[in-house]
Amino acid sequence: MSNDNGLMTALRAPFTILALRRAVFCVAGVVTAVAVLAVPAIVPGVGVLILWASGALSEKPAPAVAPVFLVLFPLTIALLAVLVVPIGRAIGAVHRRLADRLLDEHVAAPQARPGWRAVGYCLLKVPLAIPQGYGVFCYVFGLVNLSYPVWWPLFRNHPPGTILGPVWALTPFGRIGTRTLGGTFLIAAAGLAMLLVAPWLMRAGTMLDLAAMRRLLGPGRLAERVRELQVSRARAIDDAAAMMRRLERDLHDGAQIRLATLAMNLGMATEKLGADGPPPDLAQARELVALAHRGAKDALADLRDLVRGIHPPVLDNGLGDALATLATSSAIPVAVNVELPDRPAPAIETIAYFCASELLANAAKHSRATRIKIVVARSGERLLLTAEDDGVGGANPDGPGLSGLARRIAVVDGRMRVHSPAGGPTRVKIELPTHV
Amino acid sequence: MRVVIAEDAAMMREGLVRLLTDRGFEVCAAVADADALRSAIAAAVPDVAIIDIRMPPTHTDEGLRAAIDIRRDHPTVGVLVFSQYVETRYATRLLADRPTGVGYLLKDRVADVADFVDALTRVASGGTALDPEVVGHLMRAGQDMAGLASLTPREREVLSLMAEGRSNAGIAAALVITPGVVEKHVANIFAKLGLPSSETDNRRVLAVLRHVSG
């Protein structure tokens, strides 16, 4: 099963949008490398140009040639030395944007402007262009070679007896030529091989390039970490404030209003019963008391839900019990499997619980699933929570629910991956540290 | 007496309709948001409107803003703002131009039906009804002022009740003393605070509030 999948993936790889995007990125890489290689040629080129323009290359040089050359040549070198950093920056910026647009890889701009590091990246572009160039070459000529058998019959209209030169095709290992239709199939086979290899070459080229970009164009690792922490701290603060607001809102619109109404009904009932003596309106008083009674029960239910939302008491017994309890209140049948050798930190248990709760609520609302599986396992120092359903998929990781979860998870350096193609099924994997 | 109710919680709204109808009020409209309230007021021009501060869509202070608009556009309509918490700032905004036909009560006060109906009637007939909570806040805020410090505990009680908008008779009933005694206390309070006396109930509420809120 997995072998089949692997084969299909390999066969499909050249025909994905990603392959095309990588090809464009690689072409840009090769062009940059050529430009970078051309820079050292500029200085002697300019020198020759100056000599030629001033007549130094003619038979009888004018007397002004030597001083002009002496002034202009160092000036050119100085200009290049001055421009090398801004050019490096510009090339770096262009590549950062290319990576963002084409590969969806965001390399953060560093706080300080990149200088010599960007120049270093430009120099690295030269060796990086080798796998990139090879990849694009195989990609383009793989397609071309593959088409040879199709073209062949079109050129078979020459008069009989004509001796034809061989048809040439390019491969990474040199030219191959053929004079027969059978030979074109050999070329096509070579083309297929090139086409299959091309995505991996381009992938290697872009991956190496991205690694270089992160090192040389992105902010330093410490700066990056500080930025991450700042963002996650801001999120944690926002989250806490949002939670307090939600709590206030829930109390205000729920229990508080129920209790106020209850008090009002009891007040009216008191009036109906009168201060003393026989009650003036017993029937209405009874009805009002019944209303108040129901209101009190509703208020209690409201408060119970609210309290569970703040911190489910069963969580004190561990994630297993808590998730099992959560599963019983789900409309869709849930299979829970928790295998943890020891208990993670309470904060992690709480986050894992609310993730599961949110995912179940999402599934109940949107998935139309008939069963859900929640698995919690431990992998080294990480806790892995996987929720899988058999629903219609199409969950949007940027929607309010899932993005809220992602924010909460990011606060503790966790990660969430959502796999939910249209048509389903949905699989959400959440990775949390076991200790904060 | 004709009433319009604006309250977004259905339970509370229905309860209020029932309570007021039972007490012989005519409920012209019971609506759930500020826009509906504005059109209901324009259509019915009631004697008094009961307005919840927090209503959709923003659930912040749309009720209060509507109340201020109504006081400006329909001076004859009494406005009783009520809410689950009291903000002194809201009270001062409400009372800003004139302390007539205005009230600000905690929702809890509906539990004492007679008091609530009394406050509503007072507002409808151009009087004032301020929640004891608001008055308490204002008094605490004004604690440092020389005048307030010199009042006796009984005079403070009388002052609070005055600030709530009660008449001398109302104060007498609440404190179980004779109206004559109340008058004497009032005269003392005005003298100690340096306020001009012999004013109507409304004007004296304003004077007292201006004094305590600085």
Automatic annotation (TrEMBL), chain B:
<dbReference type="InterPro" id="IPR036388">
    <property type="entry name" value="WH-like_DNA-bd_sf"/>
</dbReference>
<keyword id="KW-0597">Phosphoprotein</keyword>
<dbReference type="InterPro" id="IPR000792">
    <property type="entry name" value="Tscrpt_reg_LuxR_C"/>
</dbReference>
<protein>
    <submittedName>
        <fullName>LuxR C-terminal-related transcriptional regulator</fullName>
    </submittedName>
</protein>
<feature type="modified residue" description="4-aspartylphosphate">
    <location>
        <position position="52"/>
    </location>
</feature>
<dbReference type="Pfam" id="PF00072">
    <property type="entry name" value="Response_reg"/>
</dbReference>
<dbReference type="InterPro" id="IPR016032">
    <property type="entry name" value="Sig_transdc_resp-reg_C-effctor"/>
</dbReference>
<dbReference type="InterPro" id="IPR011006">
    <property type="entry name" value="CheY-like_superfamily"/>
</dbReference>
<keyword id="KW-0238">DNA-binding</keyword>
<dbReference type="InterPro" id="IPR058245">
    <property type="entry name" value="NreC/VraR/RcsB-like_REC"/>
</dbReference>
<feature type="domain" description="Response regulatory">
    <location>
        <begin position="2"/>
        <end position="122"/>
    </location>
</feature>
<dbReference type="Pfam" id="PF00196">
    <property type="entry name" value="GerE"/>
</dbReference>
<feature type="domain" description="HTH luxR-type">
    <location>
        <begin position="144"/>
        <end position="214"/>
    </location>
</feature>
<keyword id="KW-0804">Transcription</keyword>
<dbReference type="InterPro" id="IPR039420">
    <property type="entry name" value="WalR-like"/>
</dbReference>
<keyword id="KW-0805">Transcription regulation</keyword>
<dbReference type="InterPro" id="IPR001789">
    <property type="entry name" value="Sig_transdc_resp-reg_receiver"/>
</dbReference>
